[in-house]
Amino acid sequence: MRCIYCNTPLAAIDYCPGCGADVTIQKRIVRISNLLYNEGLEKALIRDMKGAITCLKRSLKFNKNNTDARNLLGLCYYETGEAVSALCEWVVSKNLQPEANQADYYLDQLQNNKNRLDTINQTIRKYNQSVMYCREDNEDMAIIQLKKVISQNPKLVKAYQLLALLYMKRQEYERARKLLKKAARIDTTNTTTLRYIQEIEEATGKGTNFGKKYKRQEKDTEDRISGTLRYMSGTEMVIQPTTFRDSSTIATMINIILGILLGGAIVWFLVVPANRQAVNDEANRQVTDANTKLATESVKVQELQDEIDGYVEQAELAEKDRDDALAKAQSYEDLMAVANLYVTGDQAGAASMIANLNGEDFTDNAKTLYDSLSGQVKSSLFTQYYTAGTTAYAGGDYATAAEQLKKAVENDPERTNANHADALLYLGMAYYFQGDTKQADAAFNQIVKHFPDKAASVQGYITSTDPADPDAAAADLSGLGAGANGADGNPQGADTGSTGQTDAGSTPAADAGNTGDDDITIYGNDDAYVAWTDPTTGKQYDVDGNLLPGQE
User: Fold this and answer.
1) Per DSSP, what are the bridge partners of residue 239?
2) According to the model, what pLDDT value does residue 420 have?
3) Residue 36 has pLDDT above 60, yes or no
4) What is the pLDDT of residues 300-346, one digit of tens each?
5) SS3 content of the chain, % helix, strand, coil (to 5)
6) What is the pLDDT of residue 530?
7) Distance CA 89, CA 67 (A)
8) Span(s) in the chain for CATH 1.25.40.10
């Protein structure tokens, strides 16, 4: 026993050795609880379960930590068929005293027997169902359910009492008396059982004997071995022999034949069908077992296949995530390499590497670094391709010039570079000298559209005036349409293959001072026109790639 205030073990004295509190009342309460426990134990030993349960409940009211009383109360409940209440008491006892508790044994014995637990659950459900049938006046179904309950749980006193009550309602008192006597053997002083028995005795006028009945075996007065009959006549025993009749040979043969026929009929109508039915039943059972086993194995195989498919899918997803992670890591490594090349001054290498990167692979700070490097590298690429293109243009390699200048224009999509207009001009002229007027017109129209201040320098080279072409329409700033071109479709002032002469019908007087009907200045091929300027040397060239006078 421990002090309720400080949990110190108590001694024989009336105060706590730990906190000095008066524990007289506590000890008295414990003694009363133990007294009631002993009284309940005495009642349980004589199968007075109702009285024992009452005493044990009172004992627990005084001391709820009395695990012995709680365990005994669970046993009393279990003995009367109320296994759920018994489990509740044993679980509480186990929580109050985890170590060295007899409730462990009870719980193990009950919980390890799953069939017993299932039977208890079924009996409880059936008993509750029978109570509902009684409330619905469906007595027949209630009786059927209660009989099943008693067969599965023969200690459930409540089931005996309810079934006896239903028999009493039908005035089947002897059946009810028989059930109540069984209930009384389980709980001898149950007040409900005794009250029902008293009502039966009042209705029948016959008392109830709770003792065991022993059947007396009556002595057979007939000697079954000798076939004689013996009986007493007063004080003398009379022995009467049985009658013996002698049968003829014909009667004997007839009896033998009839016996054989009767035996054959019995075999044919009873034994043979029974054997055949047994064989069929065994075959059906084997087929059923085989089908059941096959279905079970099929289900297991399908479950295993589903599990394998799930693992394969998980492996594929994991592999994809791994590949994505590796690709992303490689992209970050490539970005750092680009940054390193850019810092060390290798603009070409940085431009070459960043062209192979995808901006969607980066986030946050990496995205910011990528955008910054991309802008810087594109500017460097523009300068690189622009220089290579203009150099090739100056050398007369118009195919290489067109290729390099096209890359320069593509690397400046926002047209922020100061030389973007010149790149378009050289690109158009490179296409023009290759005879690809369609590409040349596209480049010239871009100049007209985005750089109107330089439109006049390319108007004479535009050959396409298709209204359906928005760029061509944008190129016609003056609204003159095809008036800017010659009669043969070539731009006025363009060299058509002759040397030192103007278009057909013109004279050398058609110089820079001459104008057409629309006041457009027409330049002859012999005029010194600055077609482009080398950004490296600053020298100026004409449309044929020749240095202008004074530029040597």
Assistant:
1) 230
2) 85
3) yes
4) 898 899 889 889 988 888 888 888 788 778 877 877 887 777 777 77
5) 65, 5, 35
6) 62
7) 9
8) 24-112, 117-204
123: exposed, middle or buried (Cβ count in 10 Å: 0-12, 13-18, 19+): buried
Q: Residue 436's CB: how many other CB atoms inside 10 A?
A: 16
CA 438/CA 507 separation, integer angstroms: 30
Beta-carbon contacts of 424 under 8 Å, excluding residues fewer than 6 positions away, are: 409, 443, 444, 446, 447, 451
Provide the token pair at 298: 């099929």
Q: Are 11 and 28 in contact (CB under 8 A)?
A: no
For 76, counting Cβ atoms within 10 Å of its Cβ (0-12 exposed, 13-18 middle, 19+ buried), the class is: buried
Q: Which two tokens stand for residue 224?
A: 């079954």
In this prediction, residue 489 has a pLDDT band, given cuts at 50, 70 and 90, of very low
In the chain, the percentage of residues whose pLDDT exceeds 70 is 72
CA angle 219, 220, 221 (to 5 degrees): 110
3-state secondary structure labels for all residues of 258-282: HHHHHHHHHHHHHHHHHHHHHHHHH
Identity of the residue numbered 514: N
Closest CA to 525 of 460, 456, 480: 460
What are the structure tokens assigned to 136, written together?
A: 């619905």
Residue-wise pLDDT tens digits, 224-260: 444 445 544 444 555 545 444 545 688 888 889 988 9
pLDDT class of 510 with cuts at 50, 70, 90: very low
Structure tokens at 457: 């320098």
What is the per-residue pLDDT for 449?
Answer: 86
Instruction: Give the separation between CA 308 and CA 302, rounded to whole angstroms.
Output: 10
**pLDDT at position 74:** 86
Mean predicted lDDT score pLDDT of the chain: 75
Torsion of CA 397, 401, 402, 407, to 10 degrees: 150
Q: At which residue do the structure tokens 């679980």 appear?
A: 91
Give the Cα separation of 88 and 76 in Å (integer). Answer: 13
Domain 24-112 matching CATH 3.40.630.30: the answer reads no
DSSP letter (8 states) at residue 230: E
Count other Cβ atoms within 10 Å, centred on residue 223: 12
CATH superfamily assigned to domain 117-204: Tetratricopeptide repeat domain (1.25.40.10)
**Which residues on neighbouring strands pair with residue 533, listed in sequence order?**
540
Between 200 and 547, the more confident residue is: 200
**Continuous segment of H or E residues that includes residue 540:** strand 540-541
> Is 448 within 8 Å of 472 (Cβ atoms)?
no
Give the residue from 479, 413, 398 showing the smallest Cα distance to 446.
413
pTM of the model: 0.35
